[in-house]
Fold this protein.
Amino acid sequence: MALQSLDIARRSATTTSSPSVRQTTEIAKLIDVSACIGCKACQAACMEWNDIRDDVGWNFGIYDNPTNLSENSWTVMRFAEVEEAGRLEWLIRKDGCMHCADPGCLKSCPAPGAIVQYANGIVDFHEENCIGCGYCVTGCPFNVPRLSQKDGKAYKCTFCSDRVAVGQAPACVKACPTGALQYGTKEQMKDHAAKRVKDLNERGFKSAGLYDPPGVGGTHVMYVLHHADRPQLYSNLPADPGISPMVPLWKGIAKPLATATMALVGLAGLFHYVMKGPNEVSKETEKELEKEEAV
Amino acid sequence: MTNHWVDIKNADLVLIMGGNAAEAHTCGFKWVQEAKQTRKAKLVVVDPRFTRSAAVADYYAPLRAGSDIAFLGGVINYLLANDKIHHEYVKAYTNASFLINPDFKFEDGLFSGYDAEKRKYDKATWGYQLDKDGYVKVDETLQDPNCAFQLLKQHYGRYTPELVSKVTGTPKDAFLKVCEHIAETAAPNKTMTILYALGWTQHSVGSQNIRTMAIIQTLLGNMGMAGGGINALRGHANVQGITDQCLFGANLPGYLTNPLEKDKTVDDYLTARTPKPLRPNQMNVPQSYPKYDWLPKLDGAYDTLALFEKMHQGKINGFVCQGFNPLASVANKKKVGDALAKLKYLVVIDPLATDTSEFWKPHGEFNEVDAAKVPTEVFRLPSTCFAEETGSFTNSGRVIQWHWKAADAPGEAMSDREIVAGLFLKLKEMYAKDGGALPDPILNVTWPYRIAAKPTPEELAMEISGKALGDVFDPKDKTKVLVKAGEQLAGFAQLRDDGSTACGNWIYGGSWSQAGNLMARRDNADPSGLGQTLNWGYAWPANRRIIYNRASCDPAGKPWDPKRTVLKWSGEKWAGNDIPDMRPDAAPDQGVGPFIMNPEGVARLFAAGMADGPFPEHYEPFETPLDKNPFHPGNPKALSNPAARVYKGDMEVFGKAKDFPYVATTYRLVEHFHFWTKHARINAVLQPEQFVEIGEELAKEKGIANGDKVKVRSNRGFIKAIAVVTKRIKALDVDGKKVHTVGIPIHWGFKGLTKPGFITNTLTPFVGDANAQTPEFKAFLVNIERA
């Protein structure tokens, strides 16, 4: 959606090289789940900045609302009540696009330039190029993109790439009242996370840690978790996310193979033409055909 | 707050009880996180529900709604029994050593002087023993059986961990764990801050809930300290400001008490209210009213409950309802609706089309009313909201901050200033033309605004701060002019009782001085690192950020914790990182006490001013799941607060546990702001539909599944809502009985963008705290079933 074309590092379904003159720093958003109170200010800020509004919904016996991501809700809070050994924890996780270093959506997208990755790490959808095939939905290990009922195009968190491009923090981070959301370079965020993990260790959370899953090359949205050994406690955050084997199969082997097959067919046709000349219908055959039609 | 928002970061322990700061005070809650992350502070939450504050707490303990005094009384007992108090502080800065009238008694749940018929105490025996000079007798050894310290020990000795657990339902080990955390802050260089809100005030023992914590904080030596204090988190964006300017019928601006009918002359009034020092050398704050005769004299109570009671009796004709939605926010919606229907006219001044403004209109089952039977004429005057005008906000930490208009108001909306000025000028015109019973106060009131119909926020702010009408002289040198006629005063110390000065509210004195609008200052320089930022806005009184800050030093004037120096005695004067709450030249050896608003000069462990007893005592809510008060099983008079006011007709509609077996408590959610944001799209999206919360065990017993529609009934009516079945509300073991809690968020109504809902206060009882008359919204009885 944004226009910082000089910073585009990768484009979906495109083989020409991307601009590489300008260097930018890798950025990240850190979500400190241990400091999050689930106030949904980030959800409100996301709606405000991006000018999107979900419908006024219903209550289904949970605090989560809107209850799921949608083309109008690019981030939602997921509330999980976890009780172990008599100790209750209310684990509240802000869900949305993780901005993977190795993005499954981009890799599976067949529409040229519909999904891009900027040099700073942000993965962004350019809806004007989207063909609505939904492959990004299948390709995402975090179940994030949503197809719009209205225009058939896919939507998700942009990391406020328009704000970031002009040196502003994403709207959700700006709105977060408790400092649970932090924004900076990926290195800064890792440093901040290390401090938070130490503090959590001292408070008795021995398995606290940073969630930056290597299966997708690391992410540009990272979590500080009290129980980093069990991410699935946090409303099924995947323990070891990776791109579905179908995507590399399709993009890595099947697609080039298919392309090669098609090229071969074309080549064979050309060869045939050169060797045999154009495929001509003989006079006799023509007459026979005319007779058949007359019957 | 005795301290302020930023100061929370200086705490070693943050206790949230009687409130839910993460949800109701989300922005301020950042300072709790700051304390945790930079000071390694601990956060402890005590609440009937595992709230979003509890979600980030180091320790959480449940308790039964309405049993806070039992819990806190148990803490007092723990501190005294385990000698975890700040001895020097207690001896020097509290009335621990003061001798109490030997006739003072506490027997079988009642203090001496109780009149059951009037539901009132005669406080004759609650006083101090005075010597021939009128000073209180003291026993510095704290051994005299009649000294406040010994009486305190005796009173709370009954609050054993076993009994506390039995009454509160808090498991004993959880209670003791909280006690341990609190006790650590008895060290002179450790502090606890307590953050509370309506979870303590909205009880029939509301004021005493806070008193109990005040006793704890003084025993621990946490008052006046950075990172300490008693911190009331105010709800509405400017409720602190409106309270300061006199929200309550019994007050004048700046918490001066309103004259009563019996105070015939200004001398009567002043004699009754000017305190005489009760210990040598204490400070004294005088009051003065030149035009006393024109002040209205109260002939009774005018708090919200009293007002609606009078209206319900048909004794009120007209009601101007400004920025208030009583149909939704006052107890017992049916009674409020019936009361409004007895008015001739109702004027609603509000930015929104409130539920109150349509109390007469049928809205299906959410507001069943026969409009034909309501004679009340309703006028709706649309006003601006806060962002549509310039003015000041006063936050919970008493910091007054100027704000600037951000947008024009829509449609025909006018500012409250213009609406009220218009009404006033019309009334004045009518009084001038037609006369009336007492036209003088109306005809002669000062109205110096450039455009009479449009007083500006700046004009009002300057008037509130105060100016010199004539030259103001130095009391030490009568020839020296301190302030010239017409100039703004620098603070309330320059006010005079000779008519040479005028001030709208003494505690705001100096907020707009000759130097300009100090509320508009935005310098966040913080040289001490304590977050005092003395050049940001203006804090009342006198730009002081931490009240009672003299108590942050030992009697000799040395800070208890030099790392968090708020102020100290330099040898000549008090100075440091705050405005001293002390005469600046009062040398420590003069013994001027740090609690300067008390004639004792010290904090009160024993406080005779309270309506319901000098020591807080646990009484059950007026609707209780128990048959008797476990502290006084033999005395039915001591079941619920014996001094709480109950109107005729209301006692009868209190529900009984056999019909309504579950404890209900009402509260706010972070996604909404009172009854406003149901009108705002984004808030409506974030929390769209009315719900109630119940524990898994109760849900199973009643066959209620998560997401089912349920009907919640009290003896006053019912609401229907979606059931949120949760692990966060547990059944508690209280006095051998299993007690379930039903949690009821308040934000829905029949007007707005959220899905239409029921007014929660359909359920709540019409009874208030014995001192402040704040309604008991936090503990009452209901039943619940699938709808």
User: Anything to note?
Assistant: The mean pLDDT of chain B is 96. The two ends of chain B are 43 Å apart (CA to CA). Residues 416-434 of chain B form the longest helix (19 residues).
